Amino acid sequence: MKVLVTGGAGYIGSHAVYALIEQGHDVVVVDNLVTGHRGDVHPEATFYHGSIADYRFMTEVLRKELVDGVIHFAAYSLVGESMTNPFKYYDNNMSGTNVLLKAMEDCGVKNIVFSSTAATYGEAQNIPILETDPTNPTNVYGETKLAMERMINWYHKAHDTNYVSLRYFNVAGAHESGLIGEKHDPETHLIPIILQVASGRREAINVFGDDYETADGTCIRDYIHVCDLAEAHILAMQYLVNGGESTICNLGNGEGFSVLEMIEAAREVTNHPIPAIISPRRAGDPAKLIASSQKAKEILGWMPKHPAVKDMIASAWAVEQKRIVK
């Protein structure tokens, strides 16, 4: 296959690019490098520096490269920021996706795998969460992702655009080479923050609430290794290229781990104490989120190869240690 990856210089996108190339596919990357890193793009990928919101730019790329489909990662994704600057998220996430879809239609590209989010569900009504469960986002980020899903579905109905939307939960880990990994500025994800404490870049980890209705009182989440997530996107594209019907799939391990369990696992992996400070709850944090990925397993043939959280932490720790050495 020849695949265009939007946001291919970002954390998840760069891992998808590496996986595609390792499997022998041709890859084209489009990224504006606002949050992505040029150095994280695989050297064998064809790279274009630009915005998906630039219609002329996107049509030039698509007409030149003649791809089989698009894997769409490009989006702003900070929940807190989305609540204080909603315009930025509506403008970039929704408007950019609309331009991308229009360019795809005008250039005859019919397949898109959309990297969505479990934030579309909001407060979970059932555990594990199914694709048929109600969607009721509790933040602007989740709202824009749900709107993007619906936009893609309307393009599907109007123009026969084929899609798979993948809703995933907490992503963690890094490529086994240690060449790429998670690096956000500011960092907001639990595992890299924990590891920054272990490496001495932070003094302690704040645990937001220990009075939830869980075994140890802290929030429980479903974690997925970034390489397993990348593989799911590739399988979804192959599914579409082979004539699969448009659909939505959850991705996760089907097993939840609390914040304190993740900290303890990181202590064992890193052999560092990792001080934790119990802080007040954050507004809008559900007590427990766990996905059912049965549909993805049945339809896409997806099976996580790295389900152990200690493996996720160890791969991320290898990257963190390299940064400290530098």
Distance between the termini: 37 Å
| Strand neighbour order, sheet with most strands | 3-2-1-4-5-6-10
Instruction: Give, in order, the helices and strands.
Output: EHEEHEHHEHEEHEEHEEHEEHH
* Portion of residues within helices: 40-55%
**In the CATH hierarchy, what is the class of the largest domain?**
Alpha Beta
Low-confidence stretches: none
Class computed from helices, strands and strand pairing? alpha/beta
> Count the strands?
13
**How is the CATH topology of the largest domain named?**
Rossmann fold
Q: Strand content of the residues, in percent? A: 15-25%
Question: Overall pLDDT, averaged?
Answer: 94
Largest sheet: 7 strands, parallel
Gyration radius, to the nearest Å?
19 Å
The number of helical runs is: 10
CATH superfamily of the largest domain: NAD(P)-binding Rossmann-like Domain
Principal-axis shape: globular
What number of structural domains do the residues give? Answer: 2
- The CATH architecture category of the largest domain equals 3-Layer(aba) Sandwich
Subunit structure: Homodimer.
GO molecular function, one term: UDP-glucose 4-epimerase activity
Cofactor: NAD(+)
Protein name: UDP-glucose 4-epimerase
Write the layout of secondary structure elements.
Blueprint: E1 2-6, H1 11-22, E2 26-31, E3 46-49, H2 55-65, E4 69-72, H3 79-84, H4 86-106, E5 111-115, H5 140-159, E6 162-168, E7 170-172, H6 190-198, E8 205-208, E9 220-225, H7 226-241, E10 247-251, E11 256-258, H8 259-270, E12 276-279, E13 288-289, H9 294-300, H10 309-325
Parallel strand pairs: 1-2, 1-4, 2-3, 4-5, 5-6, 6-10, 7-9, 8-12, 9-13
Antiparallel strand pairs: 9-11
Keywords: Carbohydrate metabolism, Galactose metabolism, Isomerase, NAD
EC number: 5.1.3.2
Domain NAD-dependent epimerase/dehydratase: 3-252
